[in-house]
Amino acid sequence: MKGFRNQSLNIIISLLVLFLASSCEAWNDDPDYIGTWQYNETVTANDMVYNTTRTIVFTKRTYEETYLIRRENSATITAIIGTRGSVARSRSNLVFELKELGSCVPDNMEVCTEEVQWFGEGSFYWSDNIDYFEKKVTGVFEVDGTTLRLSRDLNNDKDFEDTGEDVTFELI
Fold first, then answer.
1. Is the domain 35-171 a CATH 2.40.128 member?
2. For 13, phi and psi rounded to 5 degrees?
């Protein structure tokens, strides 16, 4: 009887260890959107042509997105628009909470560099620009290999039909 109890106890412990190990692996699974993603586009505004590069970097709980704008056929950066904050996942939805706005750091000739300076709530830059952004945005995403389709209602008009709201990024 004692041998039977030890054998049963060993089986129960083995099953418990297997269950806990598989549960811990599930907790460690990183979301498939984690990484650095990029989207390139040509935009025309006021008869000027611009090449844009939108880069979004996801960690498990944060995002940082920069939108770099250059005039066509020029290496000079016209502007950088940046947003960063926290991100939470619920099934195929992501909830973005804006914490900082970014802008390019100018060099000594007042030309934009690729470096971004970040400004939080209460700063002059935040106060001057927050009206152009939503503090909380919900989006849906789908990852297929090295492609991330991200749809966000950036102006809260209940659709993804505005420019820049439905973007397909490539993993870099």
1. yes
2. -65, -40
